[in-house]
UniProtKB/TrEMBL annotation:
<dbReference type="InterPro" id="IPR050641">
    <property type="entry name" value="RIFMO-like"/>
</dbReference>
<feature type="domain" description="FAD-binding">
    <location>
        <begin position="2"/>
        <end position="342"/>
    </location>
</feature>
<dbReference type="GO" id="GO:0018659">
    <property type="term" value="F:4-hydroxybenzoate 3-monooxygenase activity"/>
</dbReference>
<dbReference type="InterPro" id="IPR012733">
    <property type="entry name" value="HB_mOase"/>
</dbReference>
<dbReference type="InterPro" id="IPR002938">
    <property type="entry name" value="FAD-bd"/>
</dbReference>
<keyword id="KW-0274">FAD</keyword>
<keyword id="KW-0560">Oxidoreductase</keyword>
<keyword id="KW-0503">Monooxygenase</keyword>
<keyword id="KW-0285">Flavoprotein</keyword>
<dbReference type="GO" id="GO:0043639">
    <property type="term" value="P:benzoate catabolic process"/>
</dbReference>
<dbReference type="Pfam" id="PF01494">
    <property type="entry name" value="FAD_binding_3"/>
</dbReference>
<protein>
    <submittedName>
        <fullName>4-hydroxybenzoate 3-monooxygenase</fullName>
        <ecNumber>1.14.13.2</ecNumber>
    </submittedName>
</protein>
<dbReference type="GO" id="GO:0071949">
    <property type="term" value="F:FAD binding"/>
</dbReference>
<dbReference type="InterPro" id="IPR036188">
    <property type="entry name" value="FAD/NAD-bd_sf"/>
</dbReference>
Amino acid sequence: MKTQVAIVGAGPAGLLLGHLLRAEGIDVVIVERASADYVLGRIRAGVLERTTIDLMDRLGLGARMHAEGLLHDGFHLADGERLIRIDIAALTGRQVMVYGQTEVTRDLMAAAPERGLTVIYEAADVALHDVASDRPYLTFEKDGALHRIDADFLCGCDGFHGPSRRAIPASASASFEKIYPFGWLGILADVAPCHHELIYANHDRGFALASMRSESRSRYYVQVSLEEKVEDWPDERLWDELAVRLGPEAAAHMTRGPALEKSIVPLRSFVSEPMRHGRLLLAGDSAHIVPPTGAKGLNLAASDVHYLAEALSAYFLRHDAGKVAAYSDLALARVWKAERFSWQLTRLMHRFPDGDAFDRRMQLAELDYIASSRAAQASIAENYVGLPL
Ligand code: FAD
Ligand code: DHB
């Protein structure tokens, strides 16, 4: 098989990129290791920046998002007692959309056939070849047969554990990493949210987040140690802990219910540079990871593919290779700013096992400063809604 762009991975980065390229008439094939059902079964991001909303709209795929998503004007930071509201609409003139990654993925998947976007699910042993040459190709196994796709470019949208980043020789790349000494335990439940906006709480016992998927579906997280297992957290223990950490106002309005899903994710900051090697271009979690505290991961994947689609369109439609050459620097400039924001918010809102009483006072002083300073709130708000492309 031959195509112009072969994409590895049909998560949000791969599907969005595929659609953006198809909208320009460029031929694309996506190969995905998992089944479509498996991809849709992963519960992940919940908050979309304006830039991500705009991309869905540009593709003409935003109708369900606007009908079912919840536009939020603000969110809260909590310090165990009070809620500090960050009024993002007043401070930035923008809003964010609460609409799950699962739903974004479902909308992109559903529109693929009618737009000529080929997605090959359950492709095993995907391997990238000759990425530094002008004739790169992919191989994979499907239904017991070995397949080959020749392409002008390969795009690695296969997440942190995929093979694309590893196809770049170590001598040609550098990586930067911080692993945090805790994880997030998440619970999804069909109960009304405890508040109409998100609450990020820093309590003496650790971080907690109150989020949602709709007016009748809630998503909550608590910071847990890396030794803890989901089995250590029966639903009642988790609800009790959330009620304490989120503070009295949230607890008073919290409805408990059985978990539809419960899982633990580790927290990591990671960047691999550059995001291009020859004819291989990386986008999304394959090139970088942020801790989830700033809700930036999915949105960074979307901004990467915005730049990448522009670069590949310039190459194929205008024979201009300059934007492909510039892609990595352009994407990384935005990536590092989102890394900084996510790292800073993670440090501010979590209890670090090696943190002492001084560190705790610094966190509380910073939260108190944020509560009293419009300038501090404006800085948080402009990062939360997403820096300009
Ligand atoms: P992925 O979604 O990981 O997709 C990669 C795809 O590649 C997958 O479908 C995978 O199956 C496929 N793949 C992997 N290996 C291979 C292979 N060998 N061959 C073929 N295909 C392969 N981000 C936000 O913006 N806001 C949030 O609120 C937020 N909350 C989060 C909460 C949690 C609990 C977690 C875990 C993440 C959260 N994120 C959030 C991060 C966000 O989910 C990711 O950044 C986003 O999924 C990145 O998209 P991606 O397409 O780059 O990677
Ligand atoms: C959700 C996840 C996040 O990491 C975040 O910052 C906000 C919301 C969520 O899953 O709803």
